[in-house]
Amino acid sequence: MSAYAALTQAGYRAYTRDRTTLFFTFAFPLLFLVVFGLIFHGQNVEESGRPYISYVAPGVLSWGVGNAAVFGVAFVLMQWRRDDILRLIRMTPTPVSAVVASRYVLALVIGAVQSALFVAVAMLPFFGLSVAGSWPWALPVLVLGITAFLMMGVIVGSFTRTPEAVAAVANCLMIPMAFLSGSFFPLDMMPGWMQALSRALPLRYLNDGISAALTGGPTGDIAVACAVLAGFALVLGAIAMKTFRWSDKS
């Protein structure tokens, strides 16, 4: 517990001192919200009759939270391993679980602040997002989604050796997934084969769960999203623990 607490505190201090990363972590999803808000302002999706904001806001929020979880842990693990910090940690009685858990807590805090700020901006009159009374159900969806994407980030951080490699691999995963999962455009507007492909991606279920919770969608969508995200978290977590490396030589 002392090792976990020390790593968590160190991670928090390092993160809050890096003002550039801190700013863009929260500003990047808001930038997409502004862009899509301007493009689709006052428009509805023909297939469902619902306003675009009810699709775009939950989708961009999900992508932003998942993106922060993947990049946050992947960059840190790569840097710690490259600088031999992980090797030094390994020489103490600190298990892998403590290292990952310290990043997990930080990811949850960042995700919570991201979500609160994003929803507050999306509810402004210009954007017009109307949040339903079922919004608290977004919390378990967010927790499970952050867990799944954090484990994905651990895998990326275990295999990459440079910041450029982390950026390339993580972007290769997250950007196509955003389009295929309906984060930027409603899945209702996409071809059938693309909708079918999206069911193999964790971001699809994070989108669906957040959207259903915030806009009053079917509770079944929330339950399915939680179940599938929990499955992704378990599978990716098992792979992450198996592939975790303390140094580039082991």
Sequence-ordered SSE layout with sheet pairings:
Elements (H helix, E strand, L loop, with lengths): L1 H16 L1 H21 L13 H30 L2 H6 L5 H27 L15 H22 L3 H18 L11 H7 L3 H14 L3 H25 L7
What does this structure look like?
The protein is mainly α. It has helices at 2-17, 19-39, 53-82, 85-90, 96-122, 138-159, 163-180, 192-198, 202-215, 219-243. Helix 1 crosses helix 5 (96-122) and helix 3 (53-82) crosses helix 9 (202-215). The longest helix is centred in the first third of the chain and has 30 residues, at 53-82. The two termini are 26 Å apart.
Summarize this entry quickly:
This protein is mainly alpha-helical and 250 residues long. The chain has helices at residues 2-17, 19-39, 53-82, 85-90, 96-122, 138-159, 163-180, 192-198, 202-215, 219-243.
Task: Supply the key terms.
mainly alpha, 10 helices, single chain, 74% helix, 250 residues
Secondary-structure class = mainly alpha
Instruction: Write the H/E string, N to C.
Output: HHHHHHHHHH
Strand content: under 5%
> How much helicity do the residues have?
over 70%
Q: What radius of gyration results from the CA coordinates?
A: 18 Å
Unreliable stretches:
none
Number of DSSP strands? 0
